[in-house]
């Protein structure tokens, strides 16, 4: 098995910055609203590709992580899957996350266009699409807007109907991230300790540990930053609640679909299933003994379900 890595970035246009400043903006070293430079045009997402020993005989699989996540969250799952299915697997960083470009726009619609551009650039006529949480909503939108590009769809622990968290709680998290002020003289461990304490004032422990994976420290300047574009994500929180209105304007996706959800998670409600079948008439659903991070908590069962579905 081989893994190839490539990071693609868009240079900011019309920012009025020097080349050095533009590069710093690209890498998120000015964690203020002014660091968000790109438009609603699709961005070239950073990605990793996994491939088994043989030549792929089926369309590739593209995986898209959830809020605060990155392509690295799917390394273990991808390495296991390429041993079982004859597909190339791409894990991508969503815009405003990981190593992908930051943008002033963050909606399922524009993330859907990012996926469309990705397929075009990789000359893939269609792909199997897998998305978790925020990524699941983007993939559902993509499948309903471009069904001819989606061979099959896997949605992990997210509903197209509603989400359990209110925007007010999420705003407290993002406020803590945006307002964090760490001295460059602090070590990474010292900065992490302070950042974690601030985030714990806004949310519970489990979420904090996941968010902390985004903290970065520049080795040359010592400056701390977040890999995700916290200020823009905060500004687009209310759009998360508008998702149902927007996706209902699109026709149902007629292709094979499976939902994999945690029985202890509140991101999918069983009573919504009849409505979801109207949107995805060929869908089935699997309930695993897990919370929201189904693929972390039950990796073997998750891999088994995905493998069977992809074959």
UniProtKB/TrEMBL annotation:
Gene3D superfamilies: alpha/beta hydrolase (3.40.50.1820). One of its GO terms (molecular function) is carboxylic ester hydrolase activity. Residues 59-299 form the AB hydrolase-1 domain. One of its GO terms (cellular component) is mitochondrion. Its EC number is 3.1.1.116. SUPFAM superfamilies: alpha/beta-Hydrolases. InterPro entries: AB_hydrolase_1, AB_hydrolase_fold. It holds the Pfam family Abhydrolase_1. It catalyses: 1-octadecanoyl-2-(9Z-octadecenoyl)-sn-glycerol + H2O = 2-(9Z-octadecenoyl)-glycerol + octadecanoate + H(+); 1-octadecanoyl-2-(5Z,8Z,11Z,14Z-eicosatetraenoyl)-sn-glycerol + H2O = 2-(5Z,8Z,11Z,14Z-eicosatetraenoyl)-glycerol + octadecanoate + H(+); 1-octadecanoyl-2-(4Z,7Z,10Z,13Z,16Z,19Z-docosahexaenoyl)-sn-glycerol + H2O = 2-(4Z,7Z,10Z,13Z,16Z,19Z-docosahexaenoyl)-glycerol + octadecanoate + H(+); 1,2-didecanoylglycerol + H2O = decanoylglycerol + decanoate + H(+). It is an enzyme of class 3 (hydrolase). Keywords: Hydrolase. Belongs to the AB hydrolase superfamily. This is sn-1-specific diacylglycerol lipase ABHD11. It comes from Drosophila kikkawai (Fruit fly). The gene is LOC108079415.
């Amino acid at each position: 098995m081989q893994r190839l890595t490539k990071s693609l970035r868009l240079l900011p246009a019309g920012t009025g910055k020097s080349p050095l400043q533009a590069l710093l903006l690209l890498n998120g070293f000015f964690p203020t609203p002014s660091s968000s430079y790109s438009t609603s045009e699709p961005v070239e997402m950073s990605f990793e590709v996994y491939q088994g020993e043989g030549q792929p005989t089926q369309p590739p699989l593209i995986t898209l992580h959830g809020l605060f996540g990155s392509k690295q969250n799917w390394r273990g799952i991808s390495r296991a899957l390429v041993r079982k299915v004859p597909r190339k697997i791409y894990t991508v960083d969503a815009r405003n996350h990981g190593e992908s470009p930051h943008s002033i726009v963050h909606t399922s619609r524009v993330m859907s266009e990012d996926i469309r551009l990705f397929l075009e650039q990789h000359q893939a006529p269609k792909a199997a699409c897998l998305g978790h949480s925020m990524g699941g909503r983007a993939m559902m939108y993509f499948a309903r807007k471009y069904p001819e590009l989606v061979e099959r769809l896997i949605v992990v622990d997210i509903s197209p109907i509603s989400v359990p968290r209110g925007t007010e709680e999420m705003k407290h998290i993002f406020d803590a991230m945006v307002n964090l002020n760490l001295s460059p003289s602090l070590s990474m461990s010292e900065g992490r300790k302070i950042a974690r304490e601030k985030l714990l004032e806004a949310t519970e422990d489990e979420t904090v540990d996941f968010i902390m994976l985004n903290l970065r420290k520049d080795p040359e300047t010592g400056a701390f930053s977040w890999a995700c574009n916290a200020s823009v994500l905060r500004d687009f929180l209310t759009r998360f609640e508008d998702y149902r209105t927007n996706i209902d304007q699109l026709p149902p996706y007629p292709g094979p679909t499976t939902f994999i959800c945690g029985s202890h998670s509140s991101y999918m409600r069983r009573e919504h299933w009849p409505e979801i079948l109207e949107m995805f008439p060929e869908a089935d659903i699997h309930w695993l003994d897990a919370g929201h991070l189904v693929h972390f908590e039950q990796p073997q069962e998750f891999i088994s379900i995905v493998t069977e579905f992809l074959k």
